[in-house]
Amino acid sequence: MPETHPKKDVGRPASNLPPLSLHIPEPRYRPGDTPDFGDIDIPAVEATPRPGEATKPDAMRELSYGLVRVLDFDGQAKGQWDPKLTPERLRIMLRYMMLVRAFDDRMFRAQRQGKTSFYMKCTGEEATSVASTMALDRGDMCFPSYRQQGILIARDYPLIQMMNQIYSNRGDHLLGRQLPIMYSAPEHGFFSVSGNLATQYPQAVGWAMASASKGDSRIATVWCGEGSSAEGDFHSALTFATVYNAPVIFNVVNNQWAISSFSGFAGSERTTFAARAVGYGIAGLRIDGNDPLAVYAATQWAADRARTNNGPTLIEHFTYRSEGHSTSDDPSAYRAADEATAWPLGDPIARLRQHLETLGEWDTERHEAQAKELDELVKTTQKQSEKLGILGHGMHQPFETMFEDVFEEMPWHLQEQCAQMLAEQEAKFGPNWKPE
Ligand SMILES: Cc1ncc(C[n+]2csc(CCOP(=O)(O)OP(=O)(O)O)c2C)c(N)n1
Which residues does UniProt assign to the signal peptide (predicted)? Predict the structure, then answer.
């Protein structure tokens, strides 16, 4: 064999080769640019076949690269994926999504008024949690990220408890120990939200495996953002799920942005997020996440598949984060202002409303009345919650509770710290002081 690289040049570029270089992803639009999403491939609604729930992942690869849709842009439900929901069920779905939006708007304002330290909206992504939850059974276990308040709302969790948690007040059943919006409601099939991205993925698979090993019929379902899919936990979870055929649904909410990092940094320039499934031998569906009926249909398909021991599914919800990442974020610093309005797949609430109106099952008057009613409901609940305290008004949990409930018996060093804290509290506020 002739030697192509003389030994003395090992480790250096050979003179006739170009220097190696890295690709650094760069979003297409920055502040001041006019976004144009005209090149996003949106196949016709009828173009996507719906395979049987037991189809082998290999035989449905193209669904990881396409876009499952049900609602066309005229508000008609079409194609094989149409879940054919009754008008009553569609109205319930619309109501839940509108309630999520009303709740988000008011809690965002509460943060701006200094009543809580933090809030996260899911504007434009309501379908990815509400429609998905509605396609599950009540006993199925949800492992959310921080942007799935729609699960709690679609499971009729009391709004006041969400607010008490956001205000970390006297009524907060998490005793002020979690960051606002990091709810926990296991009795509603809602696992504790964690700020450590993607940790819920292996936890969901573990829960699903336990359910199967006990011979139960409940499945697990888990959400994360596209940015979080770059975490190692995401990949080990998919490995466990495929090896043991765990009854789990993986949702990747691809809202294009991970705070200020666009989806390219998680790999979107190379392939779709649904296509991650292909490498693991898992069923993958890429769907229009702003189409509530597509979200419902895909979840129903995946739930039936999991429940009949046909394995896990990865669903990529192709959507857009219309507002800031959180109340701590200012998206105008890193992305074009008009991206949300230029997004070609519209808004999920507007699309379901249009569909119901097209069916003759809804109208402007009813829509406006419902918006007003939900706003009132949120406002009244907020007043009740605020009676139990808001940020900085002293109606928080007693400080010593922060030392409790971790160890069965409090270790000596925590006992010392707690005693020191109580002594300082007494010196400052006098004996028998309690939060208001
Ligand atoms: C392990 C870990 N890394 C980084 C962070 C900081 N962080 C919080 S949210 C976020 C962006 C996540 O984006 P994505 O997963 O796309 O979800 P989205 O917020 O868009 O819904 C980052 C990087 C974190 N909380 N945990």
Answer: none
Q: Output the pLDDT for position 67.
A: 98
Query: 415 lies in which domain range?
Result: 399-429
Spacing, Cα 214 to ligand 1 middle (Å): 33
DSSP string, 137-161: -TTSEEE--TT-HHHHHHTT--HHH
pLDDT in tens, 295-350: 999 999 999 999 999 999 999 999 999 999 999 999 999 999 999 999 999 999 99
Tens-place pLDDT, residues 160-170: 999 999 999 99
Can you tell me which residue has the tokens 């969901």? Answer: 204
Expressed in angstroms and rounded, the spacing between residue 35 Cα and the centre of ligand 1 is 24
Residues 6+ apart with CB under 8 A from 249: 219, 220, 221, 222, 299, 302, 303, 306, 312, 313, 315
Q: Which tokens belong to 262?
A: 């666009």
* pLDDT single digits (tens) 12-54: 666 788 899 999 999 999 999 999 999 999 999 999 999 999 9
Ligand 1 contacts (CB < 6 A) are: 147, 195-197, 224-228, 253, 255, 257-259, 321, 325
172 and 263 belong to one structural domain: yes
Please report whether residue 6 resides in a domain.
no
Same domain for 365 and 281: yes
- C-alpha distances (whole Å) from 214 to each of 67, 210, 249 are 36, 6, 19
Residue 311 lies in a domain: yes
Spell out the residues 6+ positions from residue 267 whose beta carbon is closer than 8 angstroms to its own: 229, 230, 273
**pLDDT tens digits, residue range 126-144?**
999 999 999 999 999 999 9
Q: Please say whether the dihedral angle defined by the alpha carbons of residues 356, 361, 365 and 371, taken in this order, is positive or negative.
A: negative
Number of structural domains the chain divides into:
2
Q: In what helix (H) or strand (E) does residue 287 lie, and over which residues does it extend?
A: strand 283-288
Q: How far is CA 299 from the centre of its chain?
A: 14
Single-letter code of the amino acid located at 76:
Q
Q: What is the CA(229)–ligand 1 centre distance, in A?
A: 10
